[in-house]
Amino acid sequence: MRKTLLTCLLFLIATFVNAQVTLGSGNTQGGYAPVDVNFGYNYTQQIFTKSEINTSAAGNITGLKFYLPSNADITKSVDWVVYVGHTTKTTFSSTTDWVAASALTQVFSGAVSVVGGEVTVNFSSPFAYNNTDNLLIAIDENTVDYTASSNRFYTYTGPTNSGLHFRSDSVNPDPFSPSAGTRSTVKSVTSLLGLTAATVPTCPVVSAPAAAATNVSVLPTITWGAVNYATSYKVSVGTTPGGTDVLNMQDAGVSTSYTFTTSLNFNTQYYYTVYASNSAGTSSACTERSFTTFATLACPAVSAPTAAQTGLPLKTTFAWPSISGALGYRLNIGTSAGSSNVLANFDMGNVTSYTLTAAQQLNPLTQYYYTIVSYNGAVVSSACAERSFTTTVAAPSNDDCAGAVTLMVNPTLACTTTVPGNTLGSTMSMAATPCFGTPNDDVWYKFVATSSSHLLTLSNVVSTGGTTGITDMYFQVLSGACGTMTSVLCSDEDVNMITGLTPGDTYYVRVYTYSSTITANASFNICVSTPPAPPVNDECANAVALTINPDTNCGNVTSGTTSGGTSSGVALGTCTGTADDDVWYKFTATSTSHTYQLKNIVSVGTSSSTSLYSQVFSGVCGTLTSTTCITSNTNFTFLSGLTVGQTYYVRIYNSNANSGASLYSNTFDICIGTLPVAPANDECSAAVSLTVNASLTCATPVAGTTLSATNSSVPVGTCTGAADDDVWYSFTAIGAAHTVLLSNIVASGTSTSTSLYTQVFSGACGTLTSIKCGTTATTSLTGLTVGQVYYVRVYNSNTNGTTVYANNFNICIGTPPPPPVNDDCSGAVMLTVNPDYLCGSIASGTTVSATASTETAPTCGATGVNDDVWYKFIATNSAHRVSLSNVSGSTDMAMAVYSGACGSLVQVLCSDPNVMNVTGLTVGQEYKVRVYTFTATATTTASFDICVGTLPPPPANDDCSGAVTLTPGNTFAQNVLIGNTDGSTNSPALTATCLSTPTNVGGNVWFKVVVPASGSLTIETDAVTGSLLTDTVMSVFADCTSTTSIACNDDDGNGNFSKISLTGQTPGATLYVSVWRFSSATDGQFQVSAYDSSIVLATGETKAKDKLQVYPNPFADVLNISDVSNVKSISVVDISGKLVKTFDKPESTLHLGGLNSGMYLVILNMKDGSRQTIKAIKK
Predict the structure, then answer these.
(1) Would 396 be classed as within a structural domain?
(2) Residue 827 DSSP code
(3) Residue ending a domain, choose from 501, 525, 549
(4) Which residue from 66, 81, 153 is spatially nearest to 124, judged by alpha carbons?
(5) Is 1164 helix (H, G, I), strand (E, B) or coil?
(6) How many domains does the chain have?
(7) Is 433 helix (H, G, I), strand (E, B) or coil?
(8) What is the pLDDT of residues 737-755, one digit of tens each?
(9) Taking Cα atoms as reference points, which of 566, 592, 588 lies closest to residue 579?
(10) What CATH number is associated with residue 440?
């Protein structure tokens, strides 16, 4: 009886201890839940429905268990707070549909850890699950920092939106007020401890190996599908049906696969069964399967060296993929086919790559034969292929750390002394970690530090191995001694700063090509240089005293530099930039305001920048107060509110942060100046008298300035702007109309503003009356009284404060001319009608001083007739063209043509463009032409030439049969012809196929050309000075009967002109060229030429072309061209032929910092039509 009771008690205890319900299975690492270890902070909520839980009854949940790889590192995600609760939710309806933490029960708070691939959370007190509602689990993870995604927990795919998570590296969420998260189907594989499953799980569905499978690995993986309510899976394997002599109910945990770690026998049949288990029991009567292992091992598919590969290092590396079932690999090397006189059956172990040791290294420039076989005990792969390879030159003497070459440290940043190096023949001495790249060709150097910082530079990198184009280098700096080293710096950049060095210590440098290709090698120069020492005024205490200038001309400047400057630790406050190289100055104020400016700023660092900032302080070193932040040096900065006799401090720094090889430093001149006293004409009573000029030409302008001027307190009235810096002038009217003219307006304050306004007054100082406001450089005055004195004040429109708005200028009073003779219709000037559109006969005109006419208003730009002038012509044709040319002043003109007599005119046509084609005219009838500026602004006038032309008859080459011959030249300019579309008609059967609307063309004219011996030809059109034609379309045909073009082009020439480049044409064949005007363009003359660079220039035309050069090459960010005077444009093309950059107006310095590293073709398009292509390498 006691034994029976004891047995029952033990069973109950075991049942209680092992009771758990597991939700999900598998080893997918989907992230998100229960926490994502790849993020610094997490908050997650997961809903597990009653049907998912499937417990036998309500009960106490005593804890949770989560699963992950046994070697997972979650040390940076261990601070957990766990909440659980009942919920009727089955999904989260939105990203903010969190269940309030106040509605949950906190069951755990503390640190968690991984034990055997499990994280167990034991509740501080059990949670009573009612087995009616769904269960919600919330986890708040608060540990700063994160680990790799390979450490994530196992997850499975649950119902839609049954998970909600928030994760961040910077924001630690509050469970009682979480931010919006992300919904997901991903949930963690989770065990609810303390509950008992309601039913025994069913048998798993096995997916591999297949039933009765053959040729299965001796280290196979058995896989199966997940089973609902299973908390673990068990695997049995035997050599007989039902046998368990290999595995007997082996526990696989929650994983849905099991991989053998001990090799099975070859060519043997095995029987296996997979079961599912939970607290209710283990599935039964599960189907047994069998598989048979393969008979032998396969040969490794060797990937390196490749067959007959050359140029390999003496310590060659061999590589191959793993062979299923192999427990190791052996290597045979010989100097002849089938031999193993170098290495015989050398056991490399169970690895997939092997590098020969120093004791095994081969002879240089020798061919070797090798074979790699796999083995498992006595089973060895057979008939494995033999390959050969040839070694390269002997390894350099500095192939290993012990042979490191000593580098001399240059005392300045200049690389006066460099050492040449080459990775050809070198081998890997140690792994790249913690650096990057593949150091299979590393070479070694060493230097003794003379400073705490040194700059290391690799230059003149040239590919030397069997793989071309290798220029991507890598270097690592290490401290310590060979064999016990510590990495100091890893650098993919060819130039980098090494910091934190100890003067007198020896440091090692290993250099290698970044590429993993074994034949990728390069030669280079290496240099160690020294940044400058800090300047004497590196700290506030040693600030250099500045001399204050009595004016703003900076006659006395102090030269300085930030080179070598270090951070003084003084806070920037509201200023910006990075003051890690600041230098200090001071001055004693002699006035309540001074000017400050940096001049002659030159970049002297390793990175180019002239972004020099300044900060002005009051107080003393240690207790400074920032007063002014200065980020622009274009003009001086106005320092106001100073106390006379007080000392002020200025620090200067480059705004960029110094980092690695990027040293931003500058030389400069600093100047403290003093604003001048107010001008003599600061008040109305001291107005400078101006002489009135007899015309608008100012013979004797008067120079003036608003700098230091003060407010005269005369209201601006209806005028605008802030007249707080006004200066005064006066003049005596000699006519009823005059013009105030300002010229040579230059900013003289801290702003670049040239917004200079004027205001004109009548009366006397103290009782002035405003009569005119001027906001431009020209102010027209009318209705003046001859002999009366008028006053003019000039001021910058902006309000002065911390910014000084001031200008220097010239001022004069001019007198406009009388109205032109053709100011009214009755004075219309007769125009000669030209027989064509070439305007051989023109009339010059102007709207200056013109007044508005009382004739019928035009239908276009009617408000602009305030300055109209009149012309007339007698029609000689039913259609004429009226055109304006050489327009100056306002270029926005308008014209109207009228019939009838003055006073009763009838508009025929009105035009805003400067060309007007008038039709429906009566031959012999007189027509009037009204010309005016389109704008109504009184001061806007224009001068122009006007012409009346007549449509000429079609040109001789209007049809293909009359095509004009083009003689091919060497350049466009050599045999250029002048064509003309005036009067041309459109060949009816032809269209321009290169246009989106092929019929969108006007009249066309024809040319023909014979293809030169090269079979190549370029045909191009261009503008003729003064011609109205600005847009052509061009097509090339095989003959005059063809309607299908060989080529067509719209706008590949200059501007909207056309250009066609032909290749592969038949030498001697005649091509026919149609040149249209684009439909919206105006007919006129154009240039046309056919040319090819293969055509030799005639005697006297040949000219030598200097070979242009680019430098430095390779380049980092900037590429210089030796001479761009004859370069029209520049194209940059990558090695795939893709155009990546164009310069239509090239300068000698090309900024190419945005390009990726690699080789590029720099194509120089010369002004004579030729091209020069140069290869350049971007580091």
Answers:
(1) no
(2) G
(3) 525
(4) 81
(5) strand
(6) 9
(7) coil
(8) 999 999 999 998 888 899 9
(9) 566
(10) 2.60.120
- 307: number of Cβ within 10 Å: 10
487-505 average pLDDT score: 94
Q: Which domain holds residue 1147?
A: 1110-1178
How many Å apart are CA 873 and CA 948, to the nearest integer? 8
pLDDT in tens, 1046-1105: 999 999 999 999 999 999 999 899 999 999 889 888 888 899 999 998 887 543 333 334
Q: Environment class of residue 377 by beta-carbon count within 10 Å: exposed (0-12), middle (13-18) or buried (19+)? A: exposed
DSSP collapsed to 3 states, 447-495: EECCCCCEEEEEEEEEECCCCCCCCCEEEEEEEEECCEEEEEEEECCCE
Report pLDDT digits (tens) over 337-372: 999 999 999 999 999 999 999 899 999 999 999 999
Q: How far apart are CA 751 and CA 731, in angstroms?
A: 30
The verdict on 579 and 520 lying in the same domain is no
Residues 31 and 180 reside in one and the same domain: yes
Decide which of 637 and 1171 is more confident.
637
Report residue 1165 CA to chain centroid gap. Answer: 26
**666 and 700, same structural domain?**
no
Q: Identify the pLDDT of residue 1003.
A: 86
Q: Verify that 899 and 1005 share a domain, yes or no.
A: no
Are 553 and 663 within one domain?
yes
Do the Cβ atoms of 890 and 938 come closer than 8 Å? no
Predicted confidence at residue 1024, as pLDDT, reads: 86
Query: Dihedral sign, CA of 129, 133, 134, 140?
Result: negative
Longest dimension (CA), the chain: 144
Listed residue (498, 662, 461, 519) closest to 581, CA to CA? 662
- CATH no. for residue 872? 2.60.120.380
Domain boundary among 775, 790, 814: 814
For CA atoms 331, 336, 338, 340, give the dihedral sign.
Answer: negative
Grouping H, G, I as helix, E, B as strand and the rest as coil, residue 360 is: helix
Evaluate whether residue 847 is within a structural domain. Answer: yes
User: 529 forms bridges with which residues in the sheet?
Assistant: 455
Look up residue 798 and give its two tokens. 């902006």
863 and 941 housed in the same domain: yes
If one counts every other C-beta atom within 10 angstroms of the C-beta of residue 65, the result is 18
Residues 948 and 834: beta-carbon distance below 8 Å: yes
Closest CA to 119 of 254, 250, 235, 15: 254
Q: Are strands 977-980 and 583-588 parallel, antiparallel or unpaired?
A: unpaired
Q: State the DSSP string of 802-813.
A: SS---EEEEEEE
Same structural domain, 745 and 845:
no
Residue 5 in this model has a pLDDT that exceeds 50 = no
Do 537 and 661 contact (CB within 8 A), yes or no?
no
Rounded to the nearest 5°, which phi and psi values hold at 541? -60, -25
Q: Which two three-digit tokens encode residue 398?
A: 């500095």
**Please, how many CA atoms are within 13 Å of residue 962, restricted to the half-sphere of its CB?**
10
Question: Scanning the structure block, which residue is given the tokens 């060519």?
Answer: 267
pLDDT, averaged across the chain: 91
Q: What pLDDT sits at residue 360?
A: 94
336 CB neighbour count, 10 Å cutoff:
11
For residue 1097, tell me if it sits in a domain: no
The closest of 675, 738, 682, 731 to 702, measured between CA atoms, is 731
How many Cα neighbours within 13 Å face the side chain of 323?
Answer: 27
d(CA 713, CA 725): 10
Percentage of the chain beyond pLDDT 70 is 97
Any domain includes 627: yes
Overall size of the chain counted in residues? 1179
> Amino acid letter at 788?
Q
Q: Provide the CATH number for the domain around residue 336.
A: 2.60.40.10
Q: Which tens digit of pLDDT belongs to each residue from 398-435?
A: 999 999 999 999 999 999 999 999 999 999 999 999 99
Whole-model pTM above 0.85? no
Residues forming a β-bridge with 458? 526
Contact of 836 with 1083, CB cutoff 8 Å: no
DSSP annotation of 5 reads H
